[in-house]
Automatic annotation (TrEMBL):
Species this chain originates from: Centaurea solstitialis
Transmembrane regions listed in the UniProt entry: 208-229
Superkingdom assignment: Eukaryota
Protein name: Uncharacterized protein
One Pfam family hit: DUF247
InterPro entries attached to this UniProt entry: DUF247_pln (IPR004158)
Membrane recorded as keyword: yes
Entry keywords, A to Z: Membrane, Transmembrane, Transmembrane helix
Length: 234
């Protein structure tokens, strides 16, 4: 993905008529009263795949925002304690539906955003965000299971290649989810998320596993106490 300061100058509109791509692209604009209108457009420096984020404890859920159809939100609490594992970190993303027509449609809208002056890169940003999350078919499977993506192409491998091709060599200098990606990176790089998420996956994924873990800890503690008393008795 390349980055340039200025877009190529080319207009698909006339003083009297809007191009159909202009109407399609405008349907993805945020409303005028949106509170979190993007103000810091630029490309992120660090990206983590969907599977990496999932293993760090991030959950994925579909986002339905009335103010902006392409809004992506990351909800995370700064509270870290022994009970940290009971709290959820959620990345909410608008649903991407993939079928035989998706690549053509998205390529045309992205090309329109790239080639038309003063048109914000909303769709380009959204496609690139999905591309950052999807590096392998396993990443895509995670998003499909979370109902972020629907895949009607027939295989996750084909859909993954399509997503990665869409963002390849895009002239890109406006990423409208910079704050969300910075928060994701900050969360991922803390020591707690990966360690606690590992415990949750392996020992707290069911009540019985949790009970077995605590029972093992109690037995281990009692064994140590018994050993100490045996040594003192001698």
């Amino acid at each position: 993905m390349s980055s340039l300061e200025n877009k190529p100058s080319f207009s698909l509109t006339t003083p009297h008529h809007d191009h159909i791509l202009d109407r399609l692209q405008k349907s993805f604009h945020p409303t005028a009263n949106i509170e979190s209108h993007p103000t810091r457009p630029s490309t992120p420096t660090h990206n983590h795949s969907a599977l990496e984020l999932y293993k760090a404890g991030v959950k994925f859920k579909p986002n339905k925002n009335r103010n902006w159809p392409l809004a992506i939100d990351f909800h995370s609490s700064c509270l870290e304690s022994f009970f940290w594992c009971c709290r959820n970190r959620t990345l909410r993303i608008p649903v991407m539906s993939i079928d035989d027509n998706s690549e053509t449609f998205l390529r045309n809208v992205i090309a329109y955003e790239q080639c038309t002056p003063n048109v914000p890169n909303y769709v380009t940003s959204y496609v690139c965000a999905i591309d950052y999350l999807v590096n392998t078919p396993e990443d895509l499977s995670r998003l499909i299971e979370s109902k972020i993506v629907t895949n009607d192409l027939g295989s996750n491998e084909e859909a993954t290649k399509m997503i990665n091709k869409l963002a390849k060599e895009v002239v890109f200098c406006e990423f409208y989810y910079k704050d969300q990606w910075e928060n994701l990176d900050g969360y991922y790089n803390r020591c707690w998320p990966n360690n606690i998420a590992w415990l949750k996956r392996n020992y707290f994924n069911s009540p019985w596993n949790a009970i077995a873990l605590f029972a093992g800890i109690i037995v281990f503690a009692l064994t140590i106490i018994e050993t100490i008393y045996s040594v003192k008795a001698k």
